[in-house]
Here is the input.
Amino acid sequence: MKNVFRIGLAVISIAVIALTTPGCAKKPAPAKEPEQLRKTGQEDMNKVVVAKVNGVPITMDMLIKTMNRVSVRKSPDEAPLTSEEIKNKALDRLILQELAYQKAKTGGIRPEEEHIDAAIGNLKVNVGGEEEYAKFLAQEGATEADLRAQVKRSLTLELIFAQEVNNKVTVPEDDVKKEYEKEKQRYVQPEKVSVIDVAFLLKENDKSSHKKANALLKKIRADKLKDPWKLVLDGTFIVRNIDVFKDKQKELYAAARKLKAGGLSGVIKASDGLHIIKLRSYSPERQLSFDEARSSLEGRFRVEAQQKRLEEWGRELRKDAKIEIEDARIEIRDSPKDPAKEIKN
Here is the structure.
């Protein structure tokens, strides 16, 4: 169940963005006639009911916020979605979430109070404490009860989606093995050379610099463990743990490859100055076994399978639901960059 309760700022962000969702303290106003809308302006227009799901309203405000979170592209190599497509995608998402939430309530699925407390506590820490948290709520025009209700809703949705989608997805092992054999070259663990690096902040061509470097090398060699970290910093060098790469730190890489684990180099003249290194560990490039690559491979298949199951479950939820679309009088111009700004009466 640990994966179900990934309590963090992401969950809180989703909750805050949707504070006008049904179930919060703020209730959406009934839809107004077009003549009234023109008089009361954008604020009241956002309260217009654009759809009802088994009698529960979805408002224009909720739709706009969701539209601004919808990806404007189906895939990187395809043309951006039109505003109408974004609107429909956002509305479908809101309808699915409401149907899922209703299903969860009917089935008695609810998050533990301690998980809600943890989410609220996490938000307080992330915004900077109680005072900043109070300012945050004031800016959102919300009470803690509003936020708590929406966090509860978000976590409830996590639970029902885990139960009905994630937990019902299986990935055939034969498919995973075929993919591994097909793209085996992608699953290679690169060579890794880890060293302790004593990097000098001195002019490399200065004789005194080499003298200083050799004196420090002597100190390291005199230590029983030959540990560079025991050196006393004096502003002329730094000590750090780094990984070195053949194409980026050629001199350090070449010196490291001549050492055994725990081995100490001499003074190395590199392109960026003088160094002394101690080899911490070396791992050669190697092909990952199927078992090692399985998790990554299954992840790729699982995303596709989850999407397929989500669509299937969506159809199941809609089958006996009463869904009323009531936004016929709202026209949206094409503007994928910021669909919210292009909504007009």
Observations:
- The chain has two domains: 2-172+295-344, 191-284.
- Residues 10 and 123 are 10 Å apart (CA to CA).
